[in-house]
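Severity: low
Component: inverse-folding endpoint
Summary: output formatting inconsistent between runs
Steps to reproduce: submit the following structure tokens with default settings.
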């Protein structure tokens, strides 16, 4: 099982400033490479102070410019709010500028608050996403593409320049329900998924759906992988774990507000509402714990066949504390799941 660090742009205090926020993300990316993580993942959200990265491709190019080898994944680029004729060219450019390290994770969007403020009804994002994916693939992999669909109608065009990665950059689909995971796998897509703060039974069903679909594809499914994203924090001791858990409770009060709740936002800041789960339930369902407990919990993911685990650790703690947790995770947890030990070079 490989490991990926999620560059979560949580912004509970806007006075912190966007410059410091994005500088922190870049420092985390460099730290992840130094600690031999396999990749980093970049979110996309707009108009709110959680997971905010308005242009994940811009951030991917910047991350690639300050690193040398680490994989750079978008999680996810929201297709229904974009015109694929423009976006395909941007993807090709990002593929070139990242030297082929880009993995394009795409999805339909999760928060009605932001999607609908762009003039798109949430209930039509599925159908628009499905067509957008097909248009995007065609534009990236073919020349003189024309289209006659529900959302796109255009005469033959060729995006320029062509992507560096042939026949097209690697693409992953973000999907949570097991049926959708199986269907996307059978279509030949890599998968990004998460049970959010859900129970272990859900992530096991998600992985099983991918593996069974992949097995039915024969050799065509050999290279397909599934990435699992979870919120967690590798704590130094129980006291630190308790502090981070309290931060997680506040984080999910905001997340639930825009994900399944009323979408109450003031001046770009999500109002923290009572969390849908108790703090005891969050403690059980999240991965906020000391290193040995983390190893035990991650063993479940390794056992069911997760190919890459994405750790989302930004719950509003100071950057120095975040970096220490990354290093602790790399030194005391990752080696239990790697054939070779992490090579750490102190600076």
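Observed output (run 2 of 3):
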């Amino acid at each position: 099982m490989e490991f990926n660090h999620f560059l979560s742009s949580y912004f509970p205090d806007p006075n912190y400033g966007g410059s410091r926020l994005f500088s922190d993300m870049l420092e985390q990316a460099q730290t992840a490479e130094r600690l031999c993580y396999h990749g980093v993942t970049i979110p996309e959200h707009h108009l709110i102070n959680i997971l905010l990265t308005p242009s994940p491709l811009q951030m991917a190019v910047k991350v690639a410019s300050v690193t040398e080898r680490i994989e750079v994944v978008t999680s996810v680029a929201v297709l229904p709010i974009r015109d694929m004729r423009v976006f395909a060219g941007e993807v090709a450019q990002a593929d070139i500028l990242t030297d082929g390290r880009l993995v394009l994770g795409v999805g339909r969007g999760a928060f009605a608050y932001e999607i609908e403020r762009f003039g798109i009804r949430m209930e039509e994002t599925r159908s628009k996403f499905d067509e957008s994916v097909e248009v995007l693939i065609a534009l990236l992999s073919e020349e003189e593409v024309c289209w006659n669909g529900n959302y796109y109608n255009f005469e033959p065009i060729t995006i320029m320049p062509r992507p560096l990665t042939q026949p097209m950059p690697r693409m992953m689909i973000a999907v949570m329900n097991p049926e959708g995971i199986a269907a996307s796998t059978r279509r030949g897509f890599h998968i990004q998924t998460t049970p959010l703060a859900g129970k272990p039974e859900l992530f096991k069903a998600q992985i099983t759906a991918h593996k069974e679909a992949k097995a039915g594809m024969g050799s065509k499914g050999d290279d397909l992988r599934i990435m699992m994203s979870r919120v967690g924090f590798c704590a130094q001791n129980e006291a630190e774990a308790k502090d981070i858990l309290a931060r997680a409770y506040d984080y999910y009060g905001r997340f639930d507000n825009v994900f399944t709740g009323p979408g109450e936002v003031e001046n770009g800041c999500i109002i923290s509402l009572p969390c849908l789960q108790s703090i005891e339930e969050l403690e059980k369902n999240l991965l906020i714990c000391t290193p040995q407990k983390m190893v035990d919990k991650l063993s479940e993911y390794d056992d069911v066949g997760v190919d890459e685990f994405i750790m989302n650790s930004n719950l509003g703690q100071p950057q120095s504390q975040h970096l220490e947790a990354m290093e602790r995770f790399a030194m005391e947890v990752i080696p239990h799941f790697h054939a070779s030990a992490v090579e750490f070079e102190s600076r």
